[in-house]
UniProtKB/TrEMBL annotation:
<protein>
    <recommendedName>
        <fullName>tRNA dimethylallyltransferase</fullName>
        <ecNumber>2.5.1.75</ecNumber>
    </recommendedName>
</protein>
<feature type="binding site">
    <location>
        <begin position="17"/>
        <end position="22"/>
    </location>
    <ligand>
        <name>substrate</name>
    </ligand>
</feature>
<feature type="site" description="Interaction with substrate tRNA">
    <location>
        <position position="105"/>
    </location>
</feature>
<comment type="similarity">
    <text>Belongs to the IPP transferase family.</text>
</comment>
<comment type="function">
    <text>Catalyzes the transfer of a dimethylallyl group onto the adenine at position 37 in tRNAs that read codons beginning with uridine, leading to the formation of N6-(dimethylallyl)adenosine (i(6)A).</text>
</comment>
<dbReference type="InterPro" id="IPR039657">
    <property type="entry name" value="Dimethylallyltransferase"/>
</dbReference>
<keyword id="KW-0460">Magnesium</keyword>
<keyword id="KW-0808">Transferase</keyword>
<keyword id="KW-0819">tRNA processing</keyword>
<dbReference type="GO" id="GO:0052381">
    <property type="term" value="F:tRNA dimethylallyltransferase activity"/>
</dbReference>
<dbReference type="InterPro" id="IPR018022">
    <property type="entry name" value="IPT"/>
</dbReference>
<comment type="subunit">
    <text>Monomer.</text>
</comment>
<feature type="binding site">
    <location>
        <begin position="15"/>
        <end position="22"/>
    </location>
    <ligand>
        <name>ATP</name>
    </ligand>
</feature>
<dbReference type="Pfam" id="PF01715">
    <property type="entry name" value="IPPT"/>
</dbReference>
<keyword id="KW-0547">Nucleotide-binding</keyword>
<dbReference type="InterPro" id="IPR027417">
    <property type="entry name" value="P-loop_NTPase"/>
</dbReference>
<keyword id="KW-0067">ATP-binding</keyword>
């Protein structure tokens, strides 16, 4: 088969958690698209309810990639995501479908569009020194240390994200430079023909949806899902269980479920607010309310014309 060197058409959908990305895609684009999940935690097996993972029937209706590919104690990085998403996009387009990269992990989406910064690899000595510091002092103090040195980088990293905190400190130790000084390229990657759109709701409407979704998670058995993961030996230190919706059970062990539920709602709302702030940094984004019928027709128009050009 002749190699296709044309830019791969790809749709990227930005949007905060709870805005309605999944239902929009499954209900309207099942016949022309396949989804590449840009979610940092739907990759993990056993984390179904708390990550709002598409059900098996929904995945059967609209094929999803990068879901249920890792165990909860395995690390998943932005580099892993970009490499796997690149492979998926090429395969999907070759089948005559439009790849749609969608999810709430803004850090992953940004690096998929603009590429990974070329940060240096840390030496084994530096890596061990940073690892030992975090083991002795904890992630919170490590994050505070990073904040004192490189506030710009720290503000983009969750206080429980041990991998990214470690990586930032390793770069500082190795080079004497801040991680934020190794910026993402300002140009979109040329291997793709991008159609980037965002989904947005008024803040109060979004927060109401988030609160209702968390209520439904508890009705669906979120507490039992966490208990099952704990019985399998996964702990608060497992990379997967640092996700909102899971870590609250470990931080507040023994607390009433109603208290844990409210903590998850609060943390999810705060996360959505941070997502919206981050998404504002993306240039040339078409923004829609998810119930605006033109969003579906616009995606279909792009897919039809871009795939025809790509496959011709």
């Amino acid at each position: 088969m002749k190699k296709n060197n044309k830019p791969i058409p790809v749709v990227v959908i930005l949007g905060p958690t709870g805005v309605g990305k999944t239902s929009l895609l499954i209900d309207n684009l099942y016949d022309i698209a396949e989804i590449i999940s840009a979610d940092a935690y739907q990759v993990y097996k056993g984390l179904d309810i708390g990550t709002a993972k598409p059900s098996l029937s929904e995945q059967k209706k609209l094929k999803h990639h990068l879901i249920d590919i890792l165990f909860p104690d395995e690390q998943y990085t932005v580099g892993n995501f970009v490499q796997l998403a690149d492979d998926c996009a090429k395969e999907i387009a070759a089948r005559g479908k439009i790849p749609i990269v969608a999810g709430g992990t803004a850090y992953y989406l940004r690096h998929f569009i603009y590429g990974l910064p070329e940060t240096p690899t840390a030496s084994p000595t530096v890596r061990e020194r940073v690892k030992r510091f975090i083991e002795e002092h904890g992630a919170q103090l490590a994050w505070e240390k990073l904040f004192d040195i490189d506030r710009q980088a720290a503000e983009k990293i969750g206080k429980n994200d041990v991998y990214r905190i470690s990586r930032a400190l390793e770069v500082i130790e190795q080079t004497g430079k801040k991680l934020s000084s190794f910026g993402v390229c300002g140009e979109r990657r040329s291997q793709y023909s991008f159609y980037v759109l965002g989904l947005m709701r008024p803040r109060e409407e979004l927060y109401q949806r988030i609160n209702l979704r968390v209520d439904n998670m508890f009705v669906s058995g979120l507490a039992e899902e966490v208990e099952a993961l704990a019985r399998e030996g996964y702990t608060a230190d497992s990379p997967a269980l640092k996700a909102i919706g899971y870590r609250e059970f470990f931080i507040n062990k023994g607390a009433p479920l109603d208290f844990i539920k409210e903590e998850i709602k609060k943390n999810t709302r705060h996360f959505a607010k941070r997502q919206l702030t981050f998404f504002k940094r993306f240039g040339d984004v078409r923004w829609y309310h998810p119930e605006n019928i033109s969003v579906v027709s616009d995606i279909k128009d792009f897919a039809e014309h871009a795939l025809t050009t790509y496959l011709s």
